Amino acid sequence: MQYLHFSDLSLEQQTHALNLVYQDYTMPFQVSQEWVVEHLHAHQIDPQRSPLWVDRRGVVALSLLALRGQRAWIGGFGIAPAYRGRRFSLPLLRACLEGLQADCVQLEVLTGNLKAQATYRRAGFEVTRQLAVLEGPAGPPHQEIQPAGSPCWQRESESLARLADLRVVKGSLVYRGNLIHQVGPGACWGDLPVVGTLRVSNEPVGSPLYQQLIGLGWREVARQYEMSR
Ligand SMILES: CC(C)(COP(=O)(O)OP(=O)(O)OC[C@H]1O[C@@H](n2cnc3c(N)ncnc32)[C@H](O)[C@@H]1OP(=O)(O)O)[C@@H](O)C(=O)NCCC(=O)NCCS
To answer: I need a surface site. Which of 85, 191, 200, 226 has the fewest CB within 10 A?
Structure first.
């Protein structure tokens, strides 16, 4: 086994590696090179601190580590299908966290992903809250959109500031395409010039926005635990 870093791969290899370790994921997950570039940049993933394990047959495992001040986030974690079930995931996580000087490390995991949760708990992570991915229609045009809860890593202002093509309405409603990224006070549904199904990713369960969306009949398409240690 060779112990490398994500930065040792070309963009094409990085994309292939991510698609490999996320094969048979609980939800279909297939990424493009453009997605990888944006993911690393927007969420401040440090490829030089992100372990990548390979052997002569190819990629075995990888874990992506992001840093924001004294906080860290795991922004990708997986074992190639041929190597699963050999208890590689805990050593991989430990390798990722080794020597890390952070006050707090966060990650998200789908509620149904019991294997990943077992590994994270063994490494000392605990559930801090639940996050929902929701889809549905806009509410009545004059109804104010309720504020979002405290954002997860990918919706923090540091991430949003690095995303291209974001649209901002009334300084408080931030969206791109059909995906609503952030909602502060003051914007109404009619201010959102988008038709069709809207989506909100990783909204804290129970937040004012979450409650409003459920009331509007939005469908919860996934639920994650946010964990930290
Ligand atoms: C999640 C993943 C990294 C786990 O790696 P793995 O090689 O399959 O699992 P491991 O052999 O390392 O075992 C991990 C833990 O899951 C436990 N486990 C195995 N099967 C399990 C099951 N059906 N339910 C609950 N726990 C299970 C193991 O006992 C072990 O826990 P332990 O060390 O406390 O005993 C791997 O399956 C994967 O890459 N999946 C696709 C991508 C993914 O889900 N990434 C995580 C994103 S948050």
So the answer is: 85
The domain limits of the chain are 2-105, 130-228
Extract the tokens encoding 213.
Answer: 């969306």
Statement: 2-105 belongs to CATH 3.30.450.40: no
Q: CB neighbours of 183 closer than 8 A, spacing ≥ 6?
A: 145, 146, 147, 148, 172, 173, 174, 209
Pocket residues: Cβ below 6 A from ligand 1: 21-22, 25, 77-79, 84-90, 109, 113-116, 118-119, 122
**Cα-to-centroid distance, 85 and ligand 1 (Å):** 7
pLDDT at 27: 86
pLDDT digit string, tens, across residues 113-131: 999 999 999 999 999 999 9
Please identify which residue in the block is written with the tokens 């609980």.
26
